[in-house]
Structure formats: C-alpha cells, structure tokens
Amino acid sequence: MVNLKKGQKVNLRKEDGSTLHHVMVGLGWDPAEKSGGFLSSFFGGNADIDCDASVMLLKDGHFRSADDLVFFNNLEHASGAVKHMGDNLTGEGEGDDEQVFVDLDRVPAAYDKLVFVVNIYQAKKRNQHFGMIKNAFIRIVDSDTNREFCRYNLSENYDNMTALICGEIYRYKGEWKFNAIGQATQDDGLNPLAKRFL
Is 49 exposed, middle or buried (0-12, 13-18, 19+ CB in 10 A)? Predict the structure, then answer.
C-alpha cells in the first residue's frame, strides 16, 4: 500500500505487474466535535458535516455533459463503469463513509480522465470547511482482492476550504494511472466545481 503525497502519480498495477480491473475509491472522515468547544457556538451543538464524494468523467480533459457526473443524485454512469454507493450525511462509523466503484475495463474509450472531488454540502451556509474535519482520507482498493492499493490524507492545511479536487484516474499510453492532486478550493457546491473542468 502506498501513502500518496500531493502530486504523486502511481500506475494502477498489482504487485505482480498485472493491470487493475476493478477499483473502489473510498472516502472517510471523522465527524466534527458536536458539543462543547468552539464549534458549538456555530452549530448550537450539532456540527454534522456532510461531505459528498463525486466523480466527473472527462473527454479530452474536459467535462462535457451533466450526464458524466456521478454523485448522490446520479449514482451510476450510463456506461455502468462508475457506481456511487450512496450518500453518508455525518461521517459516523468506522472505515469508508462513501464509496465509488469503477470498472476500468468498461470505461468507454471516449473518456480519458475520471476526476474525484469532495465538497461539503451547504458549506458556506453552515459556516463549515475542511479544517473542521478530522482524519479524512481517500483511498483506492483493488476490489478483486480487497487489497488497499493507495491512500491519500485529506486533512492537511485545508482551513476555510469547502471543496477538494482529490485526484484523478487517467489513461496514459493505454494504461490507467492515478494522480494525487489535493487541490483545495472555496467552491460552494458541485456546479462551480464542475465549471473548472469545462
């Protein structure tokens, strides 16, 4: 398992050199403190932060259709290659809070990138940002063997940021690779985030 750093790229290959075919991209985080402390002054003791993981499928590096956005209101891409397992509203519980499954063999040839983003639902309205979340991560698992392939920590230096371009799975010379982007933004929702890729 590789602990990724910002800007690091890895080939999506198994230890024996064979290509990964099915991957699970998992997002996890710990909920913010719910009572006491400075957060309670903002939220009246209820500091649930709703992080949403989404995937944009790009053609020639550009987001061209709303149908190519997989998120909590569109859980499966028309190709069947990308499936979102549903929304978690609070981050309660151990392990992944949201999961996206990708069948790399079924991604249509027209798509060259899958960009994974996370945003906080109604972040500005709720005065919330990633600095208020603890132990957030994104990870890629070989879903054929359930072996964790790589992990990227999302909790560093994201104060006052409300969205995060986590990373991308992209084609390069016929192979799939993953790039840990880690670019935080202040986009308040998916629409302004998607416009960055038009």
Answer: buried
- The secondary structure of residue 33, as a DSSP letter, is P
Supply 195's token pair: 């416009």
For 76-140, give the DSSP string: B-TTSSEEE----SS--SSS-SEEEEEEGGGS-TT--EEEEEEEETTTTTTT--GGG-EEEEEEE
> Tens place of pLDDT for every residue, the chain, 198 residues?
788 888 889 999 887 888 899 999 998 877 666 544 544 444 444 457 888 889 999 999 999 999 999 999 999 999 999 999 986 655 555 678 889 999 999 999 999 999 999 899 899 999 999 888 877 788 899 999 999 999 887 666 788 999 989 889 999 988 999 998 888 899 999 999 999 999
Report the candidate in 1, 107, 129, 123 with the shortest Cα–Cα distance to residue 55: 107
